[in-house]
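Case study 2.
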Amino acid sequence: MNKIIKQIREELKAGADEKVKISAQRFFKDEIKVYGLKSAAVTKIAKTYFSQIKQLNKKEIFLICQELFSSGFLEEFAIAADWSYNICDRFEPKDFKTFERWIKTYIDNWAKCDMFCNHTVGEFIEQNPSYIGELKKWTKSKNRWVKRAAAVSLIIPAKKGEFLKDIFEIAESLLLDKDDMVQKGYGWMLKEASRKHQKEVFNFVVKHKAVMPRTALRYAIEKMPENLRKKAMIINHE
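Prediction:
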């Protein structure tokens, strides 16, 4: 296990590019830990080393993931997030507590939140829909990333038209949150839901027009026809 992690870190250090590192920082308000590799290079490393660990049991893989998460480096987090999703056919209900702990402990920016929750947590919820109530509990957290996770974990199910009632409940619970990362998260969730449920999402926006933050609204209506977008913007604040 330690040998694999050491090899990964050596390869990440060897591939680091100062220009990529500087460029990556521009997407974040706060300073991030990053080696400076392009996503394609990180994906290639993840794929190469996963072939060496996939025969391990789930507990062992999760421990490796946790070690990578704990470093704080964005690239190591991306590899671990990829691996946790790669074994989604082994997920069990009890894994939710592990995922929740990882979110609360290791996620400290929007990229980590999205890369882990979009796929690993989203897939878990699709497999175990009764756990969507746990996402609703996350909306009451004091941790901005846990609140964002409540929304972005449903991005892929939302694209498929699933969980609409729950999506609206989560959006309503987060509606007045002052954090722009949370607003963008639930706005994005609504945008993806609008692909299959345009009318319902538009009506939701209209219903909450007086209090819905501008940031969330812009995200929510992004995929709608121009006439509906204009109407939504007018009825909101202008």
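Residues 110-127 form the longest helix (18 residues).
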